[in-house]
Write a structure and sequence with these properties.
With 255 residues, this protein is α+β, with helices and mostly antiparallel strands. Helices cover 24% and strands 29% of the residues. It folds into three domains: 61 residues, RNA-binding S4 domain (Structural Genomics Hypothetical 15.5 Kd Protein In mrcA-pckA Intergenic Region, Chain A, Roll), CATH 3.10.290.10; 94 residues, Alpha-Beta Plaits, CATH 3.30.70.580; 80 residues, Pseudouridine synthase (2-Layer Sandwich).
Length: 255
């Protein structure tokens, strides 16, 4: 089936739709020997080239998609920055061949933990679209005092009152001593920035936020900081299941 060139190249993991549009505007993409046009319909029979290199558009390429789970240290950016000579996360990942790694719901640089990358642009886009309904677990180190029995209700209330998108599903005390204690927070579609602000409204300072689960994918203890592991075919399938709307309701528990 013929589809828009931005969608086709994005689904093959060649580039985001915005990148493809920029390449087309710069004259870097051709279709059957002629400059490509944004929105042009193509399929695997067309000779599509980027900077003169022919791109593989065959349906078989879709089944070769890969995924990676990475334990990102806090303060490490996705890409290398001019002011910082150290490589970013993307530069540290294994090569994706003719494809590219697309981040799934990436965390802000100040936070760390589980990051997912896939070569399937369509999967990444579908997960982003369903982001409001996908739950994640966070280990949060907070400074301050709180009542173990009351913190769940207090944080839920703070998020609702803040007007932030997303919600708190559960809050459990998770150890620690003195003024530094840990909370396990399960949230759906909530940015870590909004989680921080809601904790501040409860009189707590979050000095570390570590994502330990995204939807069906867990960050097990064997995945040390700065290390990665490939996602299995079963995990990629479960991510697709998570990305699809569920007839019984919007919430995707991910377990």
């Amino acid at each position: 089936m013929r589809e828009r060139i931005q969608k086709v190249l994005g689904a093959r993991g060649i580039g985001s739709r915005r990148q493809v549009e920029a390449w087309i505007s710069a004259g870097r993409v051709t279709v059957n020997g002629k400059p490509a046009k944004a929105g042009q319909a193509v399929d695997e029979r067309d000779d599509v080239r980027l900077d003169g290199r022919r791109l593989r558009l065959g349906r078989g390429a879709e089944h070769a998609h890969r995924g990676i789970a990475y334990h990102r240290p806090a303060q490490e950016g996705l890409h290398a920055r001019a002011e910082d000579p150290s490589p970013g996360t993307i530069e540290k990942l294994p090569k994706a061949g003719s494809q590219r790694w697309v981040p799934v719901s990436p965390l802000p640089a100040r936070d760390g933990g589980l990051e997912l990358f896939v070569t399937d642009g369509a999967l990444a886009a579908a997960l982003t679209k369903r982001g409001f309904a996908i739950t994640s677990d966070y280990s949060v180190r907070v400074r301050g005092t709180f009542d173990d029995a009351a913190i769940d209700g207090q944080l839920r209330s703070a998020v609702r009152e803040s007007g932030a998108k997303g919600s708190i599903e559960a809050v459990e005390p998770a150890g620690g001593e003195g003024s530094n204690r840990w909370l396990k927070v399960t949230a759906a579609g909530l940015r870590t920035r909004d989680l921080r602000l809601s904790l501040e409204a409860c009189g707590l300072e979050a000095n570390r936020i570590l994502r330990t689960r995204y939807g069906p994918i867990l960050m097990d203890r064997a995945l040390a900081r700065g290390r990665n592991r490939p996602l299995t075919d079963g995990e990629l399938k479960s991510l697709w299941e998570t990305a699809r709307p569920h007839p019984g309701g919007n919430r995707v528990p991910g377990r």
